[in-house]
Amino acid sequence: MLAQRLRCSRGEARHRINDTHTFGLRHTLTGDVLEPLLPEAAAAIADGRIGPEHTTILRDFTTHLPTTIDPSDRCEALRQLAHIAADYTPEQTGSSGMTVRGWALRSG
């Protein structure tokens, strides 16, 4: 339905839904507002410093980061990559993601 409404492909509609889940505000069942899963990246998206290719890289990084990593190290890795994404191209962000992932694995 979203694809028809926006006149885009189903893949693009799915991409937008995933971005909203990861980078948008969330709500509890009682209506309380929760910050985005990646608040630094959400701010950079709102400022126009991160584009669709960056969001794909950040979402993939989040998905493939092992759950065994300490939560504070995980948050720091995501924060670092969001800052990198805001200053560099998607290709550079992807390469840096490998370095940040390695750091997170060693720390955790």
Shape: globular
The top level CATH class name: Mainly Alpha
Low-confidence stretches: none
CATH topology: Arc Repressor Mutant, subunit A
Secondary-structure content class: mainly alpha
Main sheet: strand order: 1-2
What is the mean predicted local confidence, pLDDT?
Answer: 88
Helices and strands, in N-to-C order?
A: HHEEHHHH
Give a count of the beta strands, DSSP E runs of length 2 or more. Answer: 2
**What value does the Rg take, in angstroms?**
15 Å
State the end-to-end CA separation: 42 Å
Pfam family, one: DUF222
InterPro entries: DUF222
Protein name: DUF222 domain-containing protein
Would you give an account of this structure?
With 108 residues, the protein is mainly alpha-helical. The protein has one domain (2-107): Arc Repressor Mutant, subunit A (Orthogonal Bundle), CATH 1.10.10. It contains 6 helices and 2 strands. It has helices at 2-6, 10-23, 39-46, 52-64, 71-87, 90-107; strands spanning 26-27, 33-34. The chain has a two-stranded antiparallel ribbon. A hairpin with a 5-residue loop joins strand 1 (26-27) and strand 2 (33-34). Helix 4 (52-64) runs antiparallel to helix 5 (71-87) and helix 5 (71-87) runs antiparallel to helix 6 (90-107). The longest helix has 18 residues, at 90-107. The protein starts with a helix and ends with a helix.
